[in-house]
Write a structure and sequence with these properties.
alpha+beta; 181 residues; Aminopeptidase; two-stranded antiparallel sheet; 4 helices; seven-stranded mixed β-sheet; GCN5-related N-acetyltransferase
Length: 181
């Protein structure tokens, strides 16, 4: 059973104007964990890790809400010294609860993460399972391009065996240079 959205590239939902994105608060941790669990997998110690990410300065943690209910979340963090992934900022955990998909929450979360990276003139990378076509399409719509494919990236192993490393370069700055990490 796949925990990814069904791939239906011509099936577009209706953007929900009640969806808002904001920085996560420590009080959001249980709701973020509930959304994270919709992806399946092991989640031992999840709430503790999430609380640390929200409190710390190594992650940017966002939530998508609808009428104050957390319906999705995403984070970005800086990875360094990984033998199978370049140093830099990475999208992590972009997840929308299944009953709230195709209403603009994922798009809004990724938009904010891209803005975070652009403000720092930093490239933004994302690692996506090759079988997750909806996520690949969403990233492409935000200017991400494929940088590589492999069985692991940043220590992540993939269902189906292949991960896709995506990168979005920042826009050219006023000084005319482009940052790459």
């Amino acid at each position: 059973m796949s925990h990814f959205a069904s791939y239906a590239p011509t099936a577009h939902g209706t953007r929900d104007p009640a969806v808002e994105v904001r920085d996560a608060l420590e009080d959001d941790v249980p709701a973020i964990a509930a959304v994270a669990r919709t992806r399946g997998g092991e989640h031992v110690g999840l709430e503790g890790r999430l609380a640390g990410w929200v409190r710390g300065d190594e992650h940017v943690v966002l939530v998508a809400t609808r009428h104050d209910e957390v319906i999705g979340w995403a984070s970005a963090r800086r990875l360094r010294d990984r033998p199978d992934a370049p140093d830099g900022w990475y999208v992590s955990s972009l997840t929308v609860a299944p009953q709230h998909r195709r209403r603009g929450a994922g798009d809004a979360l990724l938009t904010r993460l891209v803005a975070h990276a652009d403000a720092r003139e930093s490239a933004l990378r994302s690692i996506v399972n090759a079988t997750n076509a909806p996520s690949l399409d969403l990233h492409a719509a935000h200017g991400f391009v494929e940088e590589g494919r492999g069985p692991t990236f940043a220590g992540i192993e993939f269902i189906g065996g292949t991960g896709v490393l995506l990168v979005r370069k920042p826009p050219i700055s006023a000084a005319g240079s482009v940052a790459t990490t």
